[in-house]
Specification:
105 residues, mainly alpha
Length: 105
């Protein structure tokens, strides 16, 4: 893991659900709203009813802003990446996908 975005993402989600009338703490968001965004939206709407148009896009934008402001590398991540690259391990990771093309053929 290079960065830990889970806490930031769930904090934004908890704040936005609370704003919509579903009081949600960080621990609840982490426990109850995991998975794909469509699943998260479905669970939230099961409690609240339909969310306003554009709510999901606003969540994604607010989360991206929070990531930009707050994400920091996990301790040791940069050193690990540098070590892997120095050993030549990371240089060929994407080569098979590039040779096949982005569509896998």
């Amino acid at each position: 893991m290079l960065v830990d975005s889970e806490v930031i993402s769930n904090r934004v989600l908890a704040a936005m659900l609370t704003e919509q009338g579903l009081p949600t703490r960080l621990t609840q968001a982490r426990r109850e709203y995991q998975g794909l965004l469509a699943d998260v939206l479905g669970r939230a709407e099961a409690h609240l009813g339909p969310l306003p148009s554009g709510w999901l896009a606003r969540y994604e934008a607010e989360r991206a802003d929070a990531f930009y402001r707050e994400l920091r590398p996990v301790t040791g991540a940069a050193e690990t990446v540098e070590s892997v690259l120095a050993d030549g391990i990371g240089t060929d990771v994407m080569r098979p996908a590039v040779q096949r093309g982005s569509d896998g053929e």
